[in-house]
Amino acid sequence: MSDTGRTLKGLARSLGVSAATVSRALSGHPGISTGTREKVQAAARAAGYVPNRAARALVTGRGSGFVGLVLQDPGYGREHSYLGEFVQGLGQGLSDHGVDLFLAFVPDAQAELGMIRNIVSSRRADGLILGRTTEADPRVAWLLEAGFPFVTHGRTDHDPAPFDWLDTDGAGAFAEAFALLRGLGHRRFGLVSIEEPMTFRLHRVEGLQAAMAGTDATLAVATSPRYDTDRRDRAIRAMLTAPDRPTAVLCLFDGLALAVLDIAAELGLAVPGDLSVIGFDNIGPAAHARPPLSTFDSDTLEAARALAGILVARMTAPGAPPVHRLIQTRFVPRASHGPAPANT
Amino acid sequence: MSDTGRTLKGLARSLGVSAATVSRALSGHPGISTGTREKVQAAARAAGYVPNRAARALVTGRGSGFVGLVLQDPGYGREHSYLGEFVQGLGQGLSDHGVDLFLAFVPDAQAELGMIRNIVSSRRADGLILGRTTEADPRVAWLLEAGFPFVTHGRTDHDPAPFDWLDTDGAGAFAEAFALLRGLGHRRFGLVSIEEPMTFRLHRVEGLQAAMAGTDATLAVATSPRYDTDRRDRAIRAMLTAPDRPTAVLCLFDGLALAVLDIAAELGLAVPGDLSVIGFDNIGPAAHARPPLSTFDSDTLEAARALAGILVARMTAPGAPPVHRLIQTRFVPRASHGPAPANT
DNA sequence: CGGATTTTTGCAATCGTTTGCACAACCACC
DNA sequence: GGTGGTTGTGCAAACGATTGCAAAAATCCG
To answer: Helices A19-26 & A8-15, crossing angle to 10 degrees?
Structure first.
């Protein structure tokens, strides 16, 4: 047999010991003499032995060594820079713990749920990361019932949540943006948002409304389905051509803000002279927009890395109390906001 | 036992047949009567049975159902939009074939090679995708020797290559760019490039040089290490302030072109009045640059999807002749190029 | 130096699936 | 109703690792 060094058994044979001894020596189990342990470890290293993952996973029942991330195909849409950053952060965070990231792509929400079930049943992953949470998220409900380790990026309507989550403080950011613009003399505000019941929308809007409460500021809202650019543009155009158009517009995320910038230019509105615009996320194009977009940086990379850490901790200690982490954002002032126009 | 429906054996027991029969019925093997087959399939569906991947992989020796992509950490640098698009394309292409994508992150080239060896030895993946090839790529050499299925995005110096690759026709694009600018009256050209021996650099530069041969056009070259923005900016600045500065600059990729745009603005050079700039890749920010960047679109998403298809084909037919695919680029004319200045 | 104790090691079962081979059942034909 | 040929099914041995339990070896102690 030529499997010397490739398999446990082969390695054991070439050393004249049993497979059990080799296994214990390599995994640092007690009950192995220091001499044998060192001999085995040296031989394993020399032979370049790497345990077969499938075999290990099979016997231990867990330990595929993967963490899964299920992505809806149009979900991250053309938001590739976000996806790239998120994935890279996760990968970095996981590789510190010797875990690999596995990605599954599905066409829609229903397929996503099916895929999650499939992953759990086939034991293809030891844990899952859920992005883009909704208020009543069926994925969360199912995983909770299945008792499978997971962490969400974003909150749901559970309170307190019996699972781990990490979220960015959108409410705080929007309150901060309001205060800033208010201080610059703005009184008529606009909000460009989406229709989907994502929790990040909820929190940002609530943060804004809470900050506005008690002031004499007004709010016009433009919403559209997330991936319908036509309706989005129509809604924005309507908002900007209304009689009492806002002088300051907050956008749920940068993609919307960039659209506002384009439409403002098309309508002959000067930014920030006539109109202030503030986004959220600080995606790549924001810095290169005309004018460069003022926005909030949520450090996706770092958030993803933290998510990875939380999940790994959960997988190793299933019983630990849930971890909830709210990440503060950082305002990135660029050139798309300024004082309210004089004639207001 | 409560494993009815969760495992093959349990399913078999509840049906009163043997595990072998269930296995054959589900995997469509011949020699099973239609009646039993349908009964088994129905029961499996009803019970939501999903085969355990580890067990299957263990017995078949292959078939972990994963394809691996190893990424160097600073490798894709801040090029997250590229990474996101690439990963998404791969995922889409693979999921069509029931294969999942798995990502491993490593800090440097040496670790990457180690990781590849590790993946192959542990049978964690059935195939690998290699990005960012260099001319003499050690990963390729090793995988070739190991006889492990892989496909590269980009060529190496093998000719003809005894493996599958897919690449974008950078030579063609740069020749096209030269012809275009030449037709607009430009005679003094600049090239902003990097120092690393990536094959995409080689091909683009060769394409440009071949197109220039026999003309009276001149070429100034600015190079720097890929991720050293200081040296990059100094090199660009030197090129643009030289006595006979170029009137048209080709950039190896968009990131460099955006830097050229910034530096030109800083130096008071009008684009495209004084200087034409053309990039490559058509990344997100290119469309939002000032002025919007003329560039070449290589449709990363589609390329990645094609890569996935090539790899799956290779995994199922290891002996087939190597596939080589050169993807044509599409010029995206925007506002950063124009006729040569009059006083030249 | 013999027995008790502790250490070190090996045996064998197990995880869930696939698959070669043998066997049972059925049909048809002479 | 034997013989021969299909067909459909089950038995059992893998795949490569982990681990409870028992046996063997080493150590200790009086």
So the answer is: 110
**Strand C nucleotides, any atom under 7 Å to a protein CB:** 7-12, 14-20
Would the pLDDT of B92 be above 80? yes
Within A185-299, residue ranges assigned H as helices are 199-212, 229-241, 254-267
Chain-centroid distance, C-alpha B235 = 28
pLDDT on residue A1: 43
- When the candidates are 3.40.30.10, 3.90.550.10, 3.40.50.2300, 3.40.50.300, the CATH number that belongs to B170-298 is 3.40.50.2300
B261: which 2 tokens?
Answer: 């745009």
Q: Which chain B residues have a beta carbon less than 8 Å from that of A288?
A: 258, 285, 288-290
Residues of A (94-113) placing their beta carbon closer than 7 angstroms to any atom of strand D are none
CB contact under 8 A, B58 and A52: yes
CA of B22 to C1' of D14 (A): 18
- The C-alpha of B149 sits at a distance from chain A's nearest C-alpha, in angstroms, of 18
- For A66-168+300-328, CATH gives 3.40.50.2300
> Phi/psi at A250 (nearest 5 deg)?
-100, 140
pTM: 0.88
| Measured distance CA(B298)–CA(A86) in Å, rounded | 23
The pLDDT of residue B75 is: 56
Q: Mean pLDDT per 10-residue run, chain A (344 residues)?
A: 74 90 89 89 90 90 85 67 87 89 89 92 92 93 94 94 97 98 98 94 97 97 94 98 97 95 96 97 85 94 95 90 97 98 78
Q: Do B101 and A102 touch (CB under 8 A)?
A: yes
CA dihedral A234, A237, A242, A247 (to 10 degrees): 140
| CA torsion angle A209 A211 A213 A215 (round to 10) | -130
Q: So where are chain A's domains?
A: 8-51, 66-168+300-328, 170-297
Q: Answer whether CATH 3.40.50.2300 is correct for domain A170-297.
A: yes
Mutate to test the interface with B, among A124, A277, A283, A305 (most CBs of B within 10 A): A124
- CA-nearest of B129, B194, B199 to B159 is B199
To the nearest whole Å, the CA of B11 is away from the closest chain A CA by 14
Q: What pLDDT, on a 0 to 100 scale, did the predictor assign at position B76?
A: 56
- For residue A33, give the nucleotide whose C1' atom is nearest its CA: C8
Q: How far is CA B18 from CA B8, B21, B61, in A?
A: 9, 5, 23
Top-level CATH class of B66-168+300-327? alpha beta
If we measure between CA atoms, which residue out of B328, B197, B211 comes closest to residue B252? B197
Is the Cβ atom of B61 within 7 Å of strand D at any atom? yes
Q: Considering only CB atoms, which chain A residues are within 8 Å of B80? A: 80-85, 88, 284
Q: What is the amino acid identity at position A340?
A: A
Question: How do residues B16-45 score in pLDDT, each as one tens digit?
Answer: 999 999 999 998 888 888 888 999 999 999
CB-based contacts with strand C under 7 Å?
A 16-21, 24, 31-36, 55, 58-59, 61; B 3, 7-9, 19-20, 23-24, 26-27, 29, 49, 51-52, 55-56, 58-60
Q: Are strands B276-278 and B248-251 parallel, antiparallel or unpaired?
A: parallel
Say yes or no: do domains B8-51 and B66-168+300-327 share a fold.
Answer: no
- Strand D close to B20 by CB, under 7 A: yes
